[in-house]
Amino acid sequence: MTANAKQVDDGWHIEGSGVYFTNYGHGQPGEITNQIMLGYDPDTGSSAVKIVTPKGPRADKGPTTVLAVDDDGRSHLLREGRLQPNKISGFIKDHFEELTGLRPSPLTVDGADSERRYYVVASLSSDPKTILTQTAAFANACMQARSLADGRTSPGPDPIGNRKRPTYGADEKGSIVTYEVTGGLKEVVKLQGYVYEEIKKIIGVDLTKPAEGGYCVDGMIGPANLLIEIKTGTSAQCIYEAVGQLLLYPRLTSIKTCPAQALLIPESPTLNPKLSAAVTNLGILIFTYGVKQGKNKPNIVLSRAFVERCLEYCPK
């Protein structure tokens, strides 16, 4: 692991995966002894999953990490589908498979099927690069499980049925702010707030802004299962940012479904057709709004197609 990862501070980074790991304070800096923290988060001091070196044959009891050999004689590192509570999430076991998307590997111990559910961390008979890649994938799957479990910090057997209450950001408000600049005054219109207010007029209380850990979506309509990202421009940079937010926010906030994703942009200037095709190929819906000059503020005109989609309530 350490020979094929990049050393950073007191740990290592697995290039291409985003996974950072440490020795969990066991051993000197720059070495791994018998414990490793995968997916370590320096801000919380917690990690996605801890791997501890197995201490020899223990029947079907003992540590959650085991070494196994398949029918072809290849060695594998397995870990039980169990994540202990930490500052990222609560206890996860019953829904480990569902939350990680991983599949358990059948394990025979002393001629009998194990009563525990184990998952492959890495195939140790593979080359070092493959081992590192597999280990990183396992760590990211565990972090995904913790994220989908909504970050509960108190222990509990059911991370799905006993989730914490979702948190929400405040409704946005449009405004026109005047600044003093060299040679006079500059007026800045906070257009996104006006767009949000117009959607709120139509949708009402069903339009919310799920938020968690410093991340907050532009808009979510629960009954329509629709996640909305509002942009005030159509430049490539605006679209790059919007796509990233739409793809990541469901895993970073307290959204509990897999919502449809909608990008709401001004009708002028028109979106580059290559960008439009690329975005729609990702399954993201693109809608527009018009901006007309009002007496004291801009008037926002939402497209009919957007309004109809917002009012499209999914069946129970």
Describe this structure in words.
By secondary structure, the protein is of the alpha+beta class. It has 2 domains: 2-148, no CATH class; 191-310, Trna Endonuclease, Chain: A, domain 1. 23% of the residues lie in helices and 29% in strands. The protein has 6 helices and 21 strands. It has a 6-stranded mixed beta sheet with strand order 14-17-18-19-20-21, with helices on both faces. Residues 151-163 have low confidence and may be disordered.
What would you say about this model in short?
This protein has 316 residues and is an alpha+beta fold.
Reading side by side through the largest sheet, how are the strands ordered?
A: 14-17-18-19-20-21
Largest sheet: 6 strands, mixed
Mean pLDDT over all positions: 84
The total strand number stands at: 21
Strand content: 25-35%
Radius of gyration: 25 Å
Indicate the structural class: alpha+beta
- Count of domain modules: 2
Shape designation: elongated
Give me the strand/helix succession: EEEEEEEHEEEHEEEHEEEEEHEHEEH
Helical content class: 10-25%
In the predicted model, the low-confidence regions spanning at least 5 consecutive residues are 151-163
- State the end-to-end CA separation: 48 Å
- Helix segment tally: 6
